[in-house]
Amino acid sequence: MIFGYARVSTIEQNLDRQIDALKAEGAEEIIEEKMTGTKADRPQLNLLLDKLRAGDIILISDLTRLSRSTKDLFALVDKIEKKGANIRSLKESWLDTTTPQGKLMFTFMAGISQFERDLISQRTKEGLAAARARGRSGGRREKLDSAKKKAIYDLYTQKQTKLMDICNMFDITKPTLYKVVEEISKLKSGNIEKE
């Protein structure tokens, strides 16, 4: 069975162009969805995946109709292949797991994607190691308690201490300093209004 999957992001958009292209390529049943591709949980796509049997093909007009992210695409293709089914894109000829060449290209693209993720992970680890060697620790800074926030606010409003000195004292960035000042200012103005 050849299933067509047509998707648009909003209810107002029209599926006709996709449906015509899928029918012209032999889609026997077309599953239509009007929902953003950024959501992993798409009811009609899930229904289609449940229907799949060995030997079935999912036909899409182009890759963006199925997935907006590489990670999501690879997960979907993996689910499809585990059912013994295949996928084919009309626009991206390399996405065609019905042929040996298509499977090779998809495997190649998956390998590049994995390689990219591994490089990012390696660079992150190297960056954290370099920071630790310089006495800095990676990760999120600890949250500021109310006493520290009040001290930051007091130093800032007294205007006798440079901003960078306050930041260094409390190991915070300038944006964090401004957020603290804004937060305390709102609290103080709220208390004045109540009185």
Automatic annotation (TrEMBL):
Keyword DNA-binding belongs to the record: yes
Q: Which UniProt keywords apply?
A: DNA integration, DNA recombination, DNA-binding
Q: What is this protein called?
A: DNA invertase Pin-like site-specific DNA recombinase
**One BP annotation, GO:** DNA integration
Looking up Gene3D superfamilies in the UniProt record yields: Resolvase, N-terminal catalytic domain
- Enumerate the spans annotated as Resolvase/invertase-type recombinase catalytic domain: 1-135
Lineage, opening ranks: Bacteria, Bacillati, Bacillota, Clostridia, Eubacteriales
Specify the superkingdom.
Bacteria
Q: Does the keyword Nuclease apply?
A: no
Q: Which SUPFAM superfamilies match?
A: Resolvase-like (SSF53041)
The record's annotation in Pfam families points to: Resolvase
Q: Extract one GO molecular function annotation from the record.
A: DNA binding
**Active-site residue list:** S9 (o-(5'-phospho-dna)-serine intermediate)
